[in-house]
């Protein structure tokens, strides 16, 4: 007689927990310590780099944009190369883990260098541009060495559909710790002022309610921030390396590298319909976030006249994102992984529309509402592409017959880094075009419109693109299970036994005729042996 499910079992099943969940928790936590670097480092860059370069180092918005843009051009080369390297790595630690140690010291040194100019602050702006561009390029390369392999490792560690969502749910929690922790560190270093008659705790609290207007006197503070954060972001890589296990790859064999094959493989990845939808969703999400992040300081300072609230609104932003986590998790488990974007992206549009009512003298509560609505929606922006990524690798295997997590992970990091650079450059160019002056006591109406254009109008358009991509992406839990079952059967038997409807489902997701994919072709090696 079958045992009736208890109330606790029903709750666990609703949450998507299976027998593997409890035993996988340590691996989930250890794997995700690297998220401190993956998301936290660029979170701080997005919040402070442009203000640092313009208000502290004296570059114009356009010059700061050039720094970010040039630094990201190298990613178009380094990211695909790293994807090839990590997929072909032979090591007793696996294909991906060794690179966490390889990149640790370079990450540490170059992140510090982004916030300290080693005495050239008084040099001509062109010299400072070259220095900061070079240091940003070096950091991006070091970041690639670590994060492409780390992202590519997830499908191996979590082969099941729900388990992948659980890994990424733990990632959301650790991401919040990393980004919030890094922001608290940055705020205390940049804003803390010791006042007589007040305790250290009181002065620390005051720092979060009184973000200063940056100027050249903040150089040493930014240097200290860079020193502390380079350790904060890089040392957790040790926990990920020693706390995760990956199959020994020394026995694996790879064909000789061919540039023609290199191009063919990336073209093959692009041929997947599911990948194109994932790429579009990730691209539009990153564009919207990057433009808002690049302009947020200017919006509060020059449009709202409330720059002192910069730290508070950023904390509200993090709180809103964390508040959306359990909702996104439940939606992903019980509906599908793209559903949170469909439900929550409209909140971002609402927040950005509300920002048009903000001006100097506006009530504080309007600013608070903007950030609450915006960041509730942002929770889905960060969750959905991450949850979808491992499933895209299975679709790619169905098409090609190969496991190419590293190459596909290349696009994830390339989007994140390149978009942040391009959007920073465009932000600087647009603001300069509209005559915006970061250090001016008062800007013209035209200049203020330039800020609104980059803070709200362009992000609204990108969010609409994200919503379209989310609706076009169709794969469900059942369809993913079908793909995984078919791949397993093809490897074991050399052929698959699917109904016409199931073949049509595979074709719809992949964007290829079933007979043209690896999964639908006869296994020639088996036929020859027979």
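^ structure tokens above, recovered residues below v
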């Amino acid at each position: 007689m079958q045992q009736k499910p208890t109330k606790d079992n029903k709750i666990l099943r609703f949450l998507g927990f299976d027998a593997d969940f409890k035993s996988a928790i340590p691996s989930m936590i250890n794997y995700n310590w690297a998220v401190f670097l993956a998301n936290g480092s660029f979170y701080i860059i997005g919040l402070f780099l442009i203000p640092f370069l313009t208000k502290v180092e004296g570059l114009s918005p356009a010059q700061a944009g050039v720094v970010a843009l040039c630094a990201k051009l190298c990613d178009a080369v380094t990211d695909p190369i790293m994807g090839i390297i990590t997929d072909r790595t032979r090591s007793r630690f696996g294909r991906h883990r060794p690179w966490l140690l390889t990149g640790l010291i370079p990450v540490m040194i170059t992140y510090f260098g982004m916030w300290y100019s080693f005495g050239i602050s008084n040099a001509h702006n062109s010299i400072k541009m070259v220095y900061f561009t070079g240091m940003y390029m070096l950091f991006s390369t070091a970041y690639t060495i670590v994060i492409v392999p780390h992202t590519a490792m997830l499908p191996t560690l979590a082969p099941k559909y729900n388990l992948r969502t659980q890994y990424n749910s733990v990632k959301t929690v650790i991401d919040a710790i990393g980004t919030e922790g890094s922001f608290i560190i940055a705020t205390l270093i940049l804003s803390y002022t010791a006042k007589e008659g007040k305790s250290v705790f009181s002065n620390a609290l005051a720092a979060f309610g009184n973000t200063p207007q940056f100027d050249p006197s903040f150089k040493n503070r930014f240097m200290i921030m860079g020193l502390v954060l380079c350790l904060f972001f890089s040392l957790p890589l040790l926990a990920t390396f020693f706390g995760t296990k990956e199959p020994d790859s020394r026995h694996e064999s790879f064909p000789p590298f061919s540039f023609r094959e290199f191009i063919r493989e990336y073209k093959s990845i692009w041929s997947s319909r599911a990948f194109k939808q994932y790429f579009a969703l990730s691209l539009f999400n990153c564009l919207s976030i990057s433009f808002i992040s690049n302009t947020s300081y200017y919006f509060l300072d020059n449009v709202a006249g409330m720059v002192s609230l910069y730290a508070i609104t950023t904390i509200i932003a993090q709180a809103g994102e964390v508040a959306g986590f359990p909702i996104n998790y439940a939606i992903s488990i019980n509906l599908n992984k793209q559903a949170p974007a469909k439900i929550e992206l409209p909140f971002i549009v609402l927040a950005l529309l509300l920002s048009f009512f903000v001006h100097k003298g506006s009530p504080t509560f309007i600013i608070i509402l903007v950030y609450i609505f915006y960041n509730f929606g942002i929770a889905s922006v960060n969750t959905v592409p991450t949850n979808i990524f491992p499933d895209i690798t299975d679709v790619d295997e169905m098409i090609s017959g190969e496991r190419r997590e590293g190459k596909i992970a290349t696009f994830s990091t390339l989007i994140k880094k390149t978009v942040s650079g391009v959007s920073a450059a465009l932000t600087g160019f647009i603001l300069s075009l509209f005559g915006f002056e970061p250090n001016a006591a008062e800007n013209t109406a035209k200049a203020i419109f330039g800020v609104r254009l980059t803070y709200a109008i362009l992000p609204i358009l990108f969010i609409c693109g994200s919503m379209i991509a989310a609706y076009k992406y169709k794969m469900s839990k059942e369809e993913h299970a079908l793909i995984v079952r078919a791949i397993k059967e093809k490897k074991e038997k050399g052929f698959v036994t699917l109904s016409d409807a199931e073949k049509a489902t595979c074709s719809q997701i992949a964007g290829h005729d079933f007979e043209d994919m690896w999964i639908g072709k006869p296994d020639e090696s088996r036929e020859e042996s027979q």
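The chain is about 75% helix and 0% strand.
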